[in-house]
Structure prediction request, 464 residues.
Amino acid sequence: MSMFEDIPVDVGIIYEGERIRGRDMQVELGGPREDYKFELVQARGMDEIEDGRITIIGKDIPELEEGKNTTFGLLIEVAGKEIEKDLEGVIERRIHEYCNFIEGFMHLNQRYDIQMRLSMKSYQKGFNSFNHMGTVLSRLYKTEMSFIEKIQLTFMTDPEVIKEWYGKAMEIYEARDARARGMNDDDVEVFYGCSLCQSFAPTHLCVITPQRYANCGAISWFDGRATAKVDPKGPVFEILKGDCIDPLTGEYEGVDQVIREKSLGEIEKVQLYTAFGYPHTSCGCFEGCAFFIPEVDGYGVVHRNYKGETVNGLSFVTISDLTAGGRQVDGFHGLSIEYMRSPKFLAADGGWDRVVWMPEEIKERIKNYMPPEIIPKIATENTVSSLDELRTFLTEKGHPIVETWIEAAVEAPKGVGELAVPTLEMPASALPIQGIPAGMGIRIILKNAKIKAEKMIIKVDKGR
Ligand code: SF4
Prediction:
């Protein structure tokens, strides 16, 4: 007999990856339209909680407006002899996996970014109360993470209660994240890998180091350490980092070896502190993305909750689609907000001196970790709204990137560098490529090509 016999819908790994579109949903819990939403796991003492207790504060599913979103909070309290505070982050991240086992239920993102949808079909089949959801979660947790001896769940849809808990949750996330700050990747022999998102992106593996937080922003190096100890067969595991191949880009022998094994040879190597060459892969759960802006040779950074267009006219969803899927895409880099507080943030690409644009909200959140002199030189949606305005802004503010434009305009001496191109001045409008409108940016990839020339001239295009 299945342990979910009394649940009106099926529960199993086959439902992971199921997408529920807006028109098919009974209700959306959290999501981008809601300011207040969270999921939180807290470790408690054995006598502090009641095993199996499910509480609903506010409306249950049938009372929520059909086809609409609602503010939402989920608090899971766990207890057990082996349970310690460092396990909270990883137990919390498993909400994503277990919710996605439910037929007709979709869970995206994490912490304060959650978006969950219940399909009309599953609702009509009888999955019509948070009690069902609580029962499924508590059984899965106790089966899959046997160190959890007691579990208690509280579902919240009451806006006032959620607002209060949201504030507490944000403080708890911050305290967790702060633990690894100040540690250095050189100080440890072991990193941690997480393959939880391989059900969505089979070639993706997060490499979690003290100075590179997991892409989802939910698992720190300490969380990885605690989990690998109590759940050695789980998706979070030790990576012996081995010899450092390149300290600047952050390439390690042990990491490369594990990444090759776990991606079944698809990803050859990973360099942790760069968005070019062999960047860390991105599944799709990242909190934000760095995206290269070739017109100014700098990076923009955008986070999931940013609702407008970036300075080059793209939305977060578009940038996210270009980045996700477990691939290594030059110039598109999934990341956590916490990684932006790290001294290793895009260190191989120039770090903060290479960042030219970011939303005001993120700038405000992390400004204490940015070099103070760069803060006023990075544009936001409130200071520029086009690439032309961005170029003017960077020039006026004396952003360090501007110096590199000037250097690039100086003619390289003959014989310098391997790649030397003869008079190759070709505006996009002159490219007679069928199907590509004049003026549209294109990317040409030459594979196994050898280019030989006597001279390279790089000029700033003043007409743009
Ligand atoms: S984003 Fe990375 S660390 Fe977070 S759950 Fe997915 S694989 Fe694990």
The pocket of iron/sulfur cluster is lined by residues 93, 194, 196-197, 206, 214-216, 218-219, 283, 285 (CB under 6 Å). Confidence is low (pLDDT under 50) at residues 414-442. The CA atoms of residues 45 and 79 lie 6 Å apart.
